[in-house]
Amino acid sequence: MNPNRILFSVLALWALFFLSACGGDEAPAEESAAPEEPKPEEQAAAEETLEPEPEPVVIPNPNGVYVPTGQLHNDKPVYANGEGFFMWTNGSIWKISDKVGGGRTVSTGKAGINDEWSKGTARFYPDKANEQDALFRLAVAYQGAQDDNPNAIRLFERFVQKFPDHAEVPAAYLSLGDLAISEVKQDEQPSFSQISKARQSYALVREKSQQIRLLTDATFNEGGLLERVAGNPEGLVDHMLGFDKNQDDVLQSAEFSAARAELNATSGTLSDYDINSDKSIDYEELFNFCEALCYSQMEALYRDYNEKYGDSEGARVSEATQYIGLACEKQGRPSEMLKIYYKDIEKFGNDPNNVGVDGILKKYADKYKQYDDLYGQTLDLLEKVQTPSAAVSFEYTNRKGVQETISGTVKEILEDRRKLLPWLSASFKGMDSKISTEVAQYRAAIFVNPDYSAKFKGYLRKYKDLRQNFPSDLSPAKAFASLFQQAQSSGQRALELRMRATLEKAGSSVGSGYTPQRSDFPVASPGVLVWMAGKLIAQNATDDAIAAMERLVQVYGETGGEFLFDAHYMIGKAKQKQRDFGLSAAHYEQALANSSWHENSHDARIRRGESLFEVGKTSKDKDTLEAAFSSFKEVRKDSDEASLEQRAQSSFMMGECRKAQRDYGAACVFYMETYLNFPSAVTWAPKAFEQAIACYEQTGQADQISRVNKEFVAWQRKFLK
Prior knowledge:
The protein is of the alpha+beta class. The chain has 30 helices and 10 strands. The strands form 2 sheets. It has an 8-stranded mixed β-sheet. A two-stranded antiparallel ribbon has the order 9-10. A hairpin with a 4-residue loop joins strand 1 (6-10) and strand 2. Helix 7 crosses helix 10 (283-309). The radius of gyration is 35 Å and the shape is globular.
């Protein structure tokens, strides 16, 4: 760019500069004569005393948007670009410099701000009449396309200050709320100041707008922020520790009260969080307080939203209810969570377009089981450790995949770590992990150490109360059977279908015997459509299943969320059953693009691989077979989320991909990995043995065939009893 050119545009309230070089008023330095060559000994001495190179100096940038600062200089406004440069007049000319009234000047203009400048030309667009919209749109551009958050913040702040009655002010505050924590890095946590700024901006959206879209966005964005902070409230904790006047790293009663007031906390006293009863709050206790505070504020936020806008068209009431339930759960009130969810299902369950109800139904069933297991399994263990002579027998699958039966008294098992750990993992799934860890740590000392014994008697009392107060009448099998009958008698077809689907998943026979009909599609919610498609595929009615999923995509394309994964996943299964492998692979790909973390995502990857394998095997296309291999490899390497059976299948199919390319050596490697690493996968291990033998027959390796046959016989003796 030509260094003698500056392009900028000016309004009464802002100016935009594009500068390619920072010129000053100083004249360039004259060139000096070339220095004499230093003598060798001088050069060596100089090298010995060389100092490290200084850090590069960051040169301030005069480019950017110049916004009024509120100052006056010579009775004219002063503008700043947020980068350390100012635009001001000395009474006769305008200047851009790094200091108001002086400093290093980079450009000068005439008496009129839009007249010719020393390094550039002025643009008069947009004119005065359009400055409101221009400022807002420029701020939006900086937030989006330019990805320049500091300038976006300055422009939005100037916009709401200058034009407080403009229709876009609520949208500007929404952006300011989002931008308040935009500079927080992924591994950092927002500060109290950033959190407060964001929440103030979101509150102003709700104060100044009646549009349900903006009201919803402000509420859910703020709720998302509170949930994030609750996960790691370091910023709030650090701010509260600022009230530690005597610098002893804990907050005394008066200090805690002052810090609590600063956070607008209306609940939670010092005694509630003083775990060690030392009449002060340390870092960990502050952490717990701030976590609970965030969930309490989150609950209040969504309750207020549902109360004010619950009857408004477009309000996301059921989604807000999910978050209310989450907040209740995190504050130790899971029973209240379930009751809230049930009321929402009862109230909105007959509206198939309310996608949030389907989400609540799934969460309801999952959460009921989670707490039923937590209270029931923990209580079962605690009762058993009170009777050391009681006989125990359980089955356990060891690391080699072999099932064992272990027996003994409770005391004998606690004394033998080799029996204790399998007992805990096999018999008490879902129990309190802290208590499980303590049982493994204290073992038989629970019976003889008075402190440990008293501790576990306390745990027993606690979990008896929790179990007794947990609402068994709200189990999915009971609660939804009642709701199903209510829906049938009142002609609420959408609710009835939802209850049929949920009861079948819960293993209840109530509502069984239903065959999906296309005539029911219009009253079926996304979750029900997915359930219907599954039943139709099982009945080989693949065309009807595809029609159900195509309706889901068509009707709920904007609101379906993870159900869009289910739609493409089910169409993929139907197409795969019809042996249309090209289309099935494409739909599995679409499903994974929509939700790569879905609970069925690994099954989708395996099925995508199977479909691509069939296409590649038929067409003998190497690239397609490589794509299939990669799909299986994604599952094979995920030891955290993929099941043993899925990993075994993927390992076997990786061998199949290599075999289809006649790479028998590589195929044998994957078959061997399958039966050696996943011997308990009785579906895939024998197939791997058989295919390894077939590959060695192709390569004529008789010694390897004999070896694999012997290993296969040994495997059969061990795993096919």
